[in-house]
Amino acid sequence: MRNRRRRFWTVVMPAVAGATAALALTGALLRDGAPRAFESLTVVVHVHADGRADRVVLAGVDASGRAALLAGPARLPDAPADPATGGPVGPALARSLERELGVSFDRVVVVDDDLLGRILDPTGEVGSAPRTDRASLESWVDRLADPATAAAVRAVDGRLDGFVTAAASGDVAVGTLPETRGVPAGATGAEPGGPPVLDVDGARVAVGRFLPSLVEGSGAAGD
User: Which of 45, 50, 110, 43 is nearest to 84 (CA)?
Assistant: First the structure.
């Protein structure tokens, strides 16, 4: 009995106290913003002046903290050609994309020309019309390395804060979500010369390659 009491006070209690202290320290570090792995995926939907949701940009950060931007057409093969603006346009499109790509979006950001322009050029130094082609997005990512530009983007739209933070602290992969090469059978409004249509199969491959940890069951692939 005496040995058991001695072991309790000399071994068990110090171990419990040490574990408690470690948990408290870990909690304090997390509250203080210590770096940690996280993952998120934002879909930015650009609504054109004529009422079409014409472009989408996936802004993702995977579990390792690596960021990626993927841009492509907003039309899905089975979607109407000219969805109405406002209301459910962004969320409805996001839900369809989630089903088609096998991902889950943390947030949906719907932008018009004005908001897109202020996000891509928050300081007003570029002065060109907002574009979401690969070259324009790569230029924007390069400018995010400037802390003042990154802070200005966060001030324009705080919903992009997580991505901007990741992009400003490391390399960002910029790619495209491919368009279909032909007209899908039975697609509404997908006639030649109509709005571009997302190549869903190719988009799945692109998302899995650029952000593998965000796609359930996908294996890591090269950049």
Answer: 50
Q: What is the chain's pLDDT, residue by residue, as a tens digit (223 residues)?
A: 555 555 545 554 554 444 443 333 333 333 344 333 447 899 999 987 777 788 899 999 988 888 999 999 988 887 654 444 444 467 788 888 888 888 889 999 999 999 999 999 998 887 778 889 999 999 999 999 999 999 999 999 999 998 998 888 888 999 999 998 655 445 554 455 567 889 999 999 999 899 888 775 443 333 3
Strand order in the sheet with 67-73: 107-111, 40-47, 53-61, 67-73, 172-176
Distance CA 147, CA 122 (A): 12
